[in-house]
């Protein structure tokens, strides 16, 4: 595993589910596709679901880069009201 400074890590979303998006908490409704590890650590980024999903699982594909290494991953989020669950997998 490559050790990196969290300030240099950046995430790009490769896909957005049709019923959700990521946004900065201070700028609601504006979908974003790029954010940093520091944004996540400071609780500045949120996932917003519009409750119109017909499938029980939402999937976001992303790329994380430190400038030295790049990794693909998938974030699966349960869209069921009874089970708000997250699972991240690396590709």
TrEMBL record:
Pfam families: Cadherin_3. InterPro entries: FRAS1_ECM. It comes from the Eukaryota. One of its GO terms (biological process) is anatomical structure morphogenesis. This is Uncharacterized protein. It comes from Hucho hucho (huchen).
């Amino acid at each position: 595993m490559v050790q990196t400074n969290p300030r240099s890590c950046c995430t790009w979303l490769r896909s957005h589910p049709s019923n959700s998006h990521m946004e900065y908490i201070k700028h609601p409704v504006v979908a974003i596709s790029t954010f940093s590890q520091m944004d996540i650590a400071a609780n500045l980024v949120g996932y917003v679901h519009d409750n119109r999903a017909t499938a029980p699982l939402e999937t976001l594909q992303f790329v994380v880069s430190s400038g030295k290494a790049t990794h693909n991953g998938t974030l699966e989020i349960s869209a069921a009201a009874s089970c708000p669950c997250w699972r991240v997998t690396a590709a």
